[in-house]
């Protein structure tokens, strides 16, 4: 019962555009050096070790670089890893997502609204941030990475 979002045409176009930006020499493959530059430029917070591990995992044909299909798989894995890296420093955030998502890959506003302050020991600050996150969702469901990003944005704004 995974609630994973399928890739639509707009996502595919975005992925192709990003792939072209990352492929600095235009050879149709993204190397670890090109990937490192692109990730740093984008300001993505992911450790070098995680990046190398993900690249190795995503490089299905062991060519030393990523073709387009491998790149799409890489983006999904990198997003999940970055969320896990950021959440590792915040077990509370991980706990809230796990409770709200009830074992699924996505969480929506209805699930988050069901988190009662009394049952889950939410502080008044966490309750305010959670309310802001629900507003930022605009009715859509998000994965852990997006939830963590929205939480940080809401936290910074409060």
From TrEMBL:
The keyword Nuclease does not apply. The lineage of its organism: Eukaryota, Metazoa, Spiralia, Lophotrochozoa, Platyhelminthes. It comes from the Eukaryota. InterPro entries: EF-hand-dom_pair, EF_Hand_1_Ca_BS, EF_hand_dom. The keyword Iron does not apply. GO terms for cellular component: organelle. Keywords: Calcium, Repeat. GO terms for molecular function: calcium ion binding. Residues 10-45, 46-81 form the EF-hand domain. It comes from Macrostomum lignano. This is EF-hand domain-containing protein.
